[in-house]
Amino acid sequence: MPRRPTRRRVMALTGAMAGGASVAGAAPGQSAWPRRPVRFIVPFPPGQAADIFARLMAEKLGELWKQQVIVENKAGGGGIPATEYGKAAAPDGYTLMVVTSGTFGINPSLYPDLPYRPLVDFLPISNIFLVPLVIVAHPGFPASTLAELIELARKEPGKLSYASAGPGTAQHLAMELFKLRAKLDIVHVPYKGSGPAMADLLGGHVKLMMDSTASALGPIVDKRVKPLAVTTARRAAPPLDDIPTIAETLPGFDVAGWSGLAAPAGTPLEIVVRINRDVQAVLHESAVVRQIEQRAGLPAPGSPIEFAEFIKKEMDTWAEVVRATGTRPGT
User: Fold this and answer.
1) Which of 37, 103, 178, 240 could make a disulfide contact with 236, Cβ separation 3.0–4.6 Å?
2) Which fold would CATH assign to domain 133-248?
C-alpha cells in the first residue's frame, strides 16, 4: 500500500519550494526553459471542466512562453492511468499533470493500492479553479432551503434519497460529508454520470441531487431545479451568487471540485516557480476570470506551498468520509 504523506513530508516539500523560490529569479536554467512544446496531461475526456480550463491555460501560457502547449487527454480508470503516466514522465518541465479533486484528493483513500502518491511523486505548482458543488431539488420537493431539508430528513430518517454522478465521485462524497456533519440519514442513488442523474431529477424520478455548479448551471438559471446550497465557504459567482452556502448553516463546511497543475518529482524548482508565477499572472487576467466564472467556477491562484497544503487538507477530508461510509470504487 502506498505510504500516506505525513505533515512533516509536506512541510519538507514546501520548505524546499520556498527555498527554490528565493533563487528562482537568478537560476541559470530558468531563461532557457521552455525551448520546445510543453504537454498538459488531462486525465479526463475533452469537454469536462478540467479539460476546458486546461485548454484555456494552455492557450494563455503558450502566449507567454512563445511555445505551443499541447493538451493530451488520457481518460479512463478514475484518472489513475493518466496520473501514473504523468508520474513516469521526465522531470524536465515539459510534461505537466492536470490534477483534480478526484485524482489527488479522493483517490488516495478510495484505492488502497494507488500506484502514485500525490505529494511524494509530484511537485504541486498551483491550483487553477474551484467549482462549487450544489444541492439541487426537483421543483416539487417540499424543502426549499437547506434548513428545511435538514428538518425534513431528521423527521423522516432513511426515507429521503439523493442522486449523484456515481460512487466515489466528488458529488457523492460531498453529500456524504454533509450527511455526516448534519447527522442525517439520506439514501444514496448512484448514476453513471451527472447527465443521467440530472435527467432523472428533471423528470421527477429522484427529488434531490448533489451536482457541480458547472453541470447544474443551466437547469438552475432556467428554474427547472431549485438550488438549496453550495458547498464552498464563499458563494458562487453570478448568476449563482444568491444561493446560500452550506457553511451558513453548518459553519466550517467547505469542499469543491478543483483542478490544478503539478510536475513530476525531481523537476527543477526554478521551473516549478517559473510556471507558478506565470499561472498566477494568467489567473489575474480579467478575461480569464470572466471565462472561469461564466462556467460557474472560481479562480484559485496561489503559491506551490499553498497548493501543497490544500492537497493535504483535501486528502484528509476525503479520507474521513471514505472511512466513515466504507466507500469503495463502484460501491
Assistant:
1) 240
2) D-Maltodextrin-Binding Protein; domain 2 (3.40.190)
